[in-house]
Design brief:
The protein is of the alpha+beta class. The protein contains 7 helices and 8 strands. Helix 3 crosses helix 4 and helix 5 packs antiparallel against helix 7.
Length: 238
């Protein structure tokens, strides 16, 4: 039986001062350790944006590691014991990791297709990830759209967790959100408003040089964010 690929997305918050500087330096220095992590198929080190995260202004306190693992056991074990993850955890004042199973994916990321989706119904809750490389010539127009989208996401009572992260500020943007079910996620994506208008503008204007959209089944988490477990109200076990 083929092992089911598991994706982990780990968030780390750092205190002002030396720990924030350390976290920023690790965007480059952590790469050798990540490359030598057993069971790791694909990974990205990311910074984040301020506010809801969907802004061009970096939040130098929050960093993330997206990792794709060969199976669930590798994901759960290595996010606790692998050297890079242990260093982040020791220095962070708070950390939260969510574990995901891909159910749908289209598009590419850095020229590869990182997620092996297993199609089928998505038991609640679900998560969505979008990633895009923004063409420099339209970056200003793109970021003018983002504050309105951020406001809509932030005011939606259905969303359990949302953040904007990225590999390269202003040009490589990732949005990640967790929803109680597929219906509420689809309703937000399809209803008319800033989000829908921005999607239409992107499609019509060819703003992205590369893009990826993926949907996941949430299979667990570990840690806290802002002192709480984002999945706790749904009764999802760690």
């Amino acid at each position: 039986m083929t092992a089911i690929q598991t994706v982990s997305l780990s968030f780390f918050r750092f205190a002002p001062g030396i720990d924030k500087l350390w976290a920023f330096s690790m965007m480059g220095l952590a790469r050798p350790a990540m490359r030598h992590t057993s069971g790791l198929e694909f990974w990205k080190l990311c910074g984040s944006g301020t506010g809801e995260g969907f802004t061009p202004v970096p939040n130098t306190s929050v960093y993330a590691i997206l990792a794709v693992w060969s199976d669930t056991d590798a994901a759960r074990t290595q996010t606790q014991t692998a050297p890079a993850f242990r260093r982040y955890t020791r220095r962070a004042i708070e950390h939260w990791t969510i574990f995901l199973s891909p159910v749908a994916a289209r598009g590419s990321w850095s020229g590869v297709h990182p997620f092996r989706a297993v199609p089928g119904a998505s038991p609640a809750p679900v998560a969505a990830l979008t990633r895009a490389s923004i063409r420099p010539s339209v970056a200003l127009r793109f970021w003018r759209r983002v504050p309105d989208i951020s406001k809509v996401i932030g005011s939606d009572r259905n969303v359990l967790f949302k953040i904007g992260i990225g590999e390269v500020p202003w040009l490589h943007q990732i949005t990640f959100s967790v929803w109680p079910d597929s219906l509420s996620m689809a309703h937000f994506a399809r209803r008319d408003g800033p989000h829908a208008r921005a999607i239409r503008a992107v499609r019509e204007g060819d703003w992205f040089s590369e893009e990826l959209y993926a949907r996941f089944r949430v299979i667990g988490d570990r840690g806290t964010w802002h002192g709480q477990r984002p999945l706790e109200r749904l009764g999802i076990s760690a």
